[in-house]
Batch of 3 targets.
Target 1
Amino acid sequence: MKHWNLRQLRLFEAVALHLSYSRAAQQMSLTQPAVSMQVQQLETELGLQLLVKTGKRIRLSQAGEEMLRQTRRILNQVRMAEEAMAAYHQTEGGSGGLLHLGVVPTAHYFAPALLMAFARQWPGVKFKLTVDRRDQILSMLREHQLDLAIAGYPPSEADVEAETFAQHPHCIVAAASHPLAPQRRIRWDALRDESFIFREPGSATRQFFEHLLQAQALQVKVSMELSGNETIKQAVMAGMGISFLSAHTFQIELQAARLAVLDLQDMPKMLDWCLLNRRDSTLSGVNGAFKAFVLEQGSDLAQCRLR
C-alpha cells in the first residue's frame, strides 16, 4: 500500500504548476530542499519518475502529467468534503467556503455583481474569479482547477454539464453621433457601405457575426481588426466605424450616451449563458448553493439595457 499523503500531493501540484521547486517553495512557504525532498519521497512511493530534469529546467513526465490530473481530482474532492463538513457549522443564511469561478471575458462584465448578490445570501464565502478564453476555461474545469464556469453555447465535451440561465444579446453599435443612430428598422443592406471594426480572427464574437452576414448574403467593408472589446469600443466612439458586440460590454457607454445600438431588423441576436460543471463531481456546500442561486436568479442579474 502506498503511503503518500495530502501534503505531498499539494507540494507536487505546486511544483507541477510552476515547473520550479523555488517558486513552489515560495507558494507553500517552505524551503526549496524541503519541497524537493517531499516530491522525491512521493516518486519513491510510486516507483515512478514524475519530474524530468533537462539542464536547469524541469518538465512533467507522462506519468507526471497523469499524476497531476489525479492529484487535482483528489484535492478537489478533499476540499468538497471540507466544505460539506463546514455546512454543519453554518450560521443562519450561509456558511463560508471558497468558490473558484471561471468565466469567459465577456461574462466578467456581470460576474462580480453575481458573486456579490450570492455573498449576501451566503455570508462568509470567499471568491476566486478567473477570466480567460473559452478553451482555457473548459480545460481548467476538466482539470479540476475550477469549481464552476460561465461560458456561452454549451460545450460538446461529454464530461461537462451545461445549464442555461440567461440570454446573451449581441448588437451592432455605432458612435452616438452616427447618421444611422436615430433611424428605426434599418435594413441590413444599409450597412453595405459602412466601415466595420472586426474582432480578431478566432474570436467567438467574430465567428458569430460572420455567420449572421452569411445568412444575410451580405458583404461588408472591414476597415480594421482589433483585439478585445475595450479597444473596439474606443474605436467606435471615436467614429472609426461600427461593430458587432455583446451587449454586456457596452452598458456604461450606452448609459453615458457615448454609443448607440443600431435598430437593425431582426436584432439583437441572442445566445445563451450557461453554467458549467464537471459531471464526475457532486456539487455540495457553497458550490451547490451557487449553482442553485445562478439558475434561479442569474437571468435577472445578467440582464442588459439595449436602449
Note: The chain has a mean pLDDT of 88.
Target 2
Amino acid sequence: MSNFLSWWNHIPEHIKPTLVTIGSFQLRYYGLMYIVAFAIVYYLVLYRVRTEKLGYSKDTINSYFIWAILGVIIGGRLGYVLFYNFKYFVNNPLEIIIPFDFSRGCRFTGISGMSYHGGVIGVILFSSLFCNKHKVNFWRLADLLCPAIPLGYTFGRLGNFINGELYGRVTDVPWGMYFPLDPTHQLRHPSQLYEAIFEGIFLFILLWSLRKIKVSDGFFLSLYLIGYGFVRFFIEFVRQPDSQLGFILGPLSMGQILCIVMVLGGIFIIVIKVLRNSRF
C-alpha cells in the first residue's frame, strides 16, 4: 500500500505536459484537451438533436459552435485579465492577445491564463447574439447544451492536471500529490481532479439523466449555473488561490465570489422563467 501511495503522490512529477517541441514553440496536451472538450460537447448535442427530435438542424448547430468557441476563448481570456490579473495587463496590454515575448528577441510563450467564469459570460453573450441573428430561442438552446457541457469541462480540468497548474492547498491526506510547479514542493490536494469529478462527471450524470423531463425553458441553464457554482464554491476551500490575488473577501477567493454570483444568477433565472410559469 505504501508503494502505491508513494507512486500516486508523485504522479504529476512524471507527467510531461508537452506533446511536441519545435524551437521555442510547444504543443501542450492542455490545448488538445480544449479540442477534445469542444468535440465531446458537439457530438453529445448532435446526439440529442438526432434522437430527441428537438427541431434543430445540423447546420444550425455547426454555425452555433463557431460562435460558442469564440465566446469561450474570448470570454475566458478577458475574464482572466479582468478578474485575476488586471493590474499586470493594464501595464502589458499586448500580452492579452500576443503569444510572444519581445524583451529578449522573439520568444513564443503562448497565451497563459483563462477564466472559467469569463468563458461562461462569453458564451452567454455570444449565444445571445447568435440567437438574435438566427431567430433561435435562447433559453431552449441553452437547455439543449447544458446537459452536455460538464463532460467536456472534465477534460479541461484534466488538462490543468497534466499541466501541473491550479493545484490545491497544502495537505496531509494520503491521496495528496507533489506538483512540479509548486515552489515549496509540499504535498497538496489534487484539486484539478476534484473539479473534474464533481464539476464535470457528477454534474454531467445529474443533468444528462434529467435532460428529457418536461420543464420550463431555462431550467437546465439555471440548474447548471447553480450546480457548478455550488460545487466549485466548496472545492475552492482546498484549491490554492492565485498567487497574485490571494484571498479577496475574508477566507473567500475570487473563484468563490464569482461562484456566488453564478448561483445567484441561476436562482434569478428560476424565479423569472420557471416559477413564473409554474411548471416543473
Note: The first strand starts at residue 18 and ends at 22.
Target 3
Amino acid sequence: MNIRAILDGLPQAATAAVEQTGARPLGAYPRTRMRRMRGDDWSRRLARETQLSVNDLIWPIFVQDGATAETPVPSMPGVMRYSVAQAVKAVGEAAALGIPAIAVFPVVDPALKTEDGREAANPDNIVCRAVRAIKAAHPQIGIICDAALDPFTSHGQDGLLKDGEVINDETVAALVRQSLVQAQAGCDVVAPSDMMDGRVGAIRDALDGAGLTHVKILAYSAKYASAFYGPFRDAVGSGSALGLKGKQTYQMDPANGDEALRETALDIAEGADMVMVKPGLPYLDVLWRVKDAFKLPTFVYHVSGEYAMLKAAAANGWLDGDKALMESLACFKRAGADGILTYGAIDAAKKLKSGG
C-alpha cells in the first residue's frame, strides 16, 4: 500500500494535513535507509557484527643465537630477530598487552644446518632454549612451536630428501622427534606446518605415549604453496637454500578449495585440536568454508608477504598502514577465524587497548 492509498482512507482534514508535510509517493524514495544506522559512532558500534579483540591475536617471533642480539628483518619493517634474552623481554610486552599466545620460529646458525635437519631434534636447540626461558619468565602466555624441518635443513625443504624429492614417512618420524623435544621444553602447542601426510596422528600418538597429553596440536591443515612466504624465508634463512625448487609436491595448489576440506577432515580425525589456513587474505573463502564445515577452533596466518605489502604501501603513502592492518584483521574474524597469527599483533593490541 502506498501513501496515496492511505490518504484516501483518511478524513479530508487529516488528508490535507499530511499533504502539507510534502509527503511523496512511497515509490519515489526508500522507506528502509541503511545509512541511518551508519550515521553515528554509537549506532555503528552497537550494530557491528564482528568484534576484534586482543584475545584474537597470536604474535609470531623469530629467535636467534647471540647474547643480546636484536636484528631487523629488512623485508618485514618493524619485525626483529631476537636473542633468547631479548625475546623474553619482547614477550613480556606482548603479555602485558593481553596477547594470549606467541609462535616461535628459529633462525638457525648455518653451521648447524644439515641434509637431515638433525638439529631440529636437539633438546638444546635455539627453539627449546627460547621456550624454556620464555615459559619461566611468562608462564601465563601460550607458546606455539612450529614443527617443520625447513629452518634446520641445508636444502630449505620441510622434509627429508631422497633422490631430490621430499619423502613423507621418514619426514614424519623426524617431525615426531622434533615435536617431542619442543613439548618437553615446555611449549603448549605443537603446530606441524610441513603438510606431510599422517603427521598429526603420529605426533598425537607420540605426545600421548610420552605422557604429554595436555600438549595441544594446531595443524596447518590448509597450507598453500604460496608466493606470499618470501619475507619469512628471508627471516629464517631458508629461502636461498631452495634454489629453483618449490614446495608444490607437499603444500596445496592455490587453485584448490575442496581439497582444503579433505585435508582438514583428515587432521581432525588424527587428533588436531585446532586447524589453520595459510596464507590469509587471498584465502578468506577457504577460511570461511573450513570454519563453516567443521566448527573447530580455526586459525589463520596473516603471512609475511601480506604484512610486507601493507608496510611497503604505508611507507609510500599509498595506504594508512594502521587502518589497513586493523581492517585486515577484522576481515579474518568476519570470515570465521578464532585466532590470527600476525606480525602486527603488538601494533594491533596497542590500537585495541587505546580504543582505536
Note: Residues 75 and 241 are 17 Å apart (CA to CA).
